[in-house]
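Lab meeting, action items carried over

1. Structure of the two-component assembly. Owner: GW. Status: complete.
Input record:
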Amino acid sequence: MSDPYQALIVERHKHPLHAGRPAQFDAEGEGANPICGDKVHVYLRRAGMDVHYEAQGCAILSASADLMADAVAGKTAEQIAQLSRDFETLLTTGRENPALGGLNALAGLAAYSSRIRCATLPWSALAEALHHV
Amino acid sequence: MSATLRSFDVTVIREDFPILKQQVHGKPLVFLDSAASAQKPRAVIDAMRHVMEAQYANVHRGLHYMSEKTSDAFEAVRDKVAAFINAASRDEIVFTRNATESINLVAYTWGRTALRPGDAVAVSEMEHHANLVPWQMLRDAHGTDLRIIKITDAGEIDFDSLEQVFADGKVKLLAVTQMSNVLGSYTPVERLAKFAHERGAKILVDGCQAIVHRHVDVQAIGADFYAFSGHKLYGPTGIGVLYGKRELLEAMPPFMGGGEMIGHVTYEKSTWAKPPFRFEAGTPAIIETIGLGAAIDYVRGIGFEAIAAHEHELTEHALATLGNIEGVNIIGHAQDRGGVISFTMRHAHPHDIATLLDRQGIAVRAGHHCAEPLMGRMGVTGTARASFGMYTTPEEIDALAKGLLRIKQVFA
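Predicted assembly:
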């Protein structure tokens, strides 16, 4: 079983590339987990699908949000929807998928079903933002 | 097992719990989540297996050998429970599914008949949801008031707040935990019972956590109701207990309708059985009840004096060891406290702590522990929690400390 806290996860949690509220954005969305109180707020700039976020929660949540922002940059809404489905498959099966790039670092969560929601929360928030675009 | 006290040796105790030999992720299991549910000794497992293999039928119904024998074994547990908590009578022991059901039973039956709209129920800030939500539901359905007694920052009942909550004489029930499942604090239940009674109120004690660690005497406490679950007391899930003073139970209407709880039934109407059967509709958890009996025998065989002494040492060791880790913040510092320790850690979310410890074979709980409002009160969104049982060793606490140091390195 792969480690759910691979170096990339810890690295992105500690030194995120896309964290923070941007000065300008076209849409926003929020994901909240009432079970643990964790929250993520996603900001979307439509041009180039540029995603930033503010996360309050665990390392899995913030790293997943940061890696999501990497993955969706420059993609179309349809491509993002496909990525989101592939990502969910990764989390339930633990089988890596080359199309997912850095998101594969989260494959180890397949052994922790209670933590999968931490990783999918940013994607729910992004889906909400896309809905408003 | 006889009730002769054994001299306490944790390595011998551990031999009684088969699951403790398991490995998790290739590491020895370090189980520090007993406050959620305790592991089961061989005596409980064997007793339950024995019922199913050699002595099983429905209870209180059959006129045949197996039913008679099973009814005897089942009812013998009622006597055991009565003796265990020193109830005045076996008829004061109602079997439920768990402590949650016990409290809901009181809220639904006693609450809707003995309380009038405008009367108040008081609970503390450190109640489990099981001793908060049923009273919110009663308030919404029946028009009673619900009041919250403050706790101090250390995690103890604030007696000034208690006085204020009771000041207008409307509180008719004090529903309070005997030991917080988050902070580990014991509450002075004898003093609280006296306080409530002097003001014309009854007291319900949530004994889920406390009954595992210290001897409980409901008459010495002065409890009107006392609730606990079997599964935290080294017994099976699916069996809980409600103790209620006889005169209170006798005045209460049934909780659920069905078989066993009736006196006489016609198509038009029914009369109710006497307590405790009035509150035990349907086929009970026969196997689990007998398992609970075995758990009580087991615990009494070890003895609370020995259990409490061992757990006191563990708690002192844990508070000192964890307290020494820079960045670890223990939540709650009650004077009278037991082996339930909640903590947070700088730079590490409780869920990350729990998952990373799990990788090392260490089981702790993380989150709000079914006490969400208490998290806000203590200024945290969640905590990690290590909780101990009679089988916990100081070495396991050292393993936890080592695990936390490794996590600290990961997130440093």
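2. GW to write a short summary for the group page. Key points so far: Chain B has a mean pLDDT of 96. Chain B is about 40% helix and 15% strand.
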